[in-house]
């Protein structure tokens, strides 16, 4: 049995929604802010908003949080999309080529460089994106400010 309703925003919106869940769990540990016997507070993205308003914080009662989380756990005997169907290992290359052709999307260019190293920087608190290093300070040294500008309104002794 499948629960499916017609997509209002078209197939691209459905694909964007499904792509958020094919390779990861519904919520990661870094999105959990606090939890105790009264509730769970976590960070989430509201895709209907733009900019800094996209990152939201929600607190749910423990039983409601568990109920919502379990909606994303597959029943016994079911397979995740990445292990079966379009993204199955045996037919992945041909299926992805066909999907790209149908969606009119060019294949990504592989420049042969190795993948990026694990990045342990915290995400941007506004958008959740990768932070950019502006400056690196030496350990055990205080960062200096710019040199003082020469005073232009000093009285000169005559």
TrEMBL record:
Q: Which GO terms describe its molecular function?
A: DNA binding; transposase activity
A single GO BP annotation from the record?
DNA transposition
User: Transposase IS801/IS1294 domain: from which residue to which, for each copy?
Assistant: 2-91
The organism sits in which domain of life?
Bacteria
* InterPro entries, alphabetized: Transposase_32
**Which Pfam families does the UniProt entry name for this protein?**
Y2_Tnp
PANTHER family annotated for this entry?
Answer: ISSOD25 TRANSPOSASE TNPA_ISSOD25, TRANSPOSASE
The protein's name: Transposase
Give the species this sequence originates from: Rhizobium tibeticum
């Amino acid at each position: 049995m499948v629960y499916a309703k017609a997509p209002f925003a078209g197939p691209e919106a459905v694909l964007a929604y499904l792509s958020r869940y094919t390779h990861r769990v519904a919520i990661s540990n870094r999105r959990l802010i606090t939890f105790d016997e009264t509730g769970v507070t976590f960070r989430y993205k509201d895709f209907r908003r733009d900019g800094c308003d996209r990152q939201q914080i929600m607190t749910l009662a423990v039983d409601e949080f568990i109920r919502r989380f379990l909606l994303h756990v597959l029943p016994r005997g079911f397979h995740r999309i990445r292990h079966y169907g379009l993204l199955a290992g045996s037919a992945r290359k041909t299926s992805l080529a066909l999907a790209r052709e149908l969606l009119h999307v060019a294949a990504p260019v592989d420049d042969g460089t190795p993948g990026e190293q694990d990045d342990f920087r915290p995400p941007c608190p506004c958008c959740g994106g990768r932070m950019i290093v502006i400056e690196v300070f030496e350990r055990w040294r205080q960062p200096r400010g710019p040199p003082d500008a020469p005073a232009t309104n000093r009285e000169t002794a005559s």
